[in-house]
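Researcher: For the record, we're logging two predictions in this thread. I'll number them. Prediction 1 follows.
Model: Prediction 1, sequence and structure:
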Amino acid sequence: MRAFQTFALRSATVAVIAASCALLNGQDSSPTVKSDLIAVNIKMKQESVPADQHPWVLLTSKNISKHNLFPGFCHDSRVHLEGEKGEPPLTYRHRQLRREPGVPALSAGGPPNFPLNIPGEKPYEGIPPGGVDVEIFDLTVLYNLAPGKYTVYLDVQDQAGVWLRTNTVHFEIQPPAK
């Protein structure tokens, strides 16, 4: 039960941060890419990121189907990042996610699968038609980033196996203050 409470608290925290980031971000709304199930787009939390902070990409997925979808309705997603000198070096974690040969696989542990229903409370019914899910990607978990200008987009797979390429966004990592 304790593990579930910790997971629920972390999930709620991420949701609140994601919502506040989406509201505070001043970027124009980006073009949306659609499948039969979801519409996706991305934006940066900040277009100009100080060297000591993390660049975060916000992936917004809207349920455009006629039935509820559960979180994780995007089966897979791949981040593509290009800098002024090509793709930046990958972190060890990113190499594990890409299942590179010779790199040990990620452990199979993790949070329990959805739906998460709490006894005595209304069962979780997923994201309703028209509902939105926001995922946050911390690019420093995936790439070793140096100061410079970058371009990022995601490939997202919906539950039907359809791959969607999101819009492309730009950001810059500022050099450290002297």
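Researcher: Logged. Prediction 2.
Model: Prediction 2, sequence and structure:
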Amino acid sequence: MKAQWLVAGLEALRKGGVGEVRVERLAASLGITKGSFYWHFRDRSELLDAVLEHWSREMTDAEFERIAAMPAGLAGRLLALAQDVLEKGMGRYDPAIRAWARHDRKVAAAVARVDRSRVRALTGFFQEGGFDAAEARTRARLFYTFLLGEPQVRAPAREPGELERMVERLQS
């Protein structure tokens, strides 16, 4: 049940910002009573901390662990990550989290940690793919920036096979 509260919190954040993450509204959207909330969280502040931690863990740690465990090489890993973020919605909460971070120092610090972690993981993928440390970091930052920015500028829509060609270009 706690996971449902966290997902509902992320969805409320995505749809309306941090002001929409309200216990009563979340309970109603989940079809449960407020009492369930207090079984898992002391207060709204604890819920917000848990939502931020859940985003960090599920959209970064778990995702990069899964990608790193893939037997695929660099291109396969980059493509799988790009598909997860851009086509399966793995990055759908990032804009809302980043908007929240503009008004909350604790959230800004968490976003900075997540960004460093993601770029570090991507840098490792590129190094495993044969690039030296400086080139790997540059390519990791380019790819990360692409993943964050692509949903904002998807006009015109990608052509079939374009994502694969982008990934191919980054690894060659």
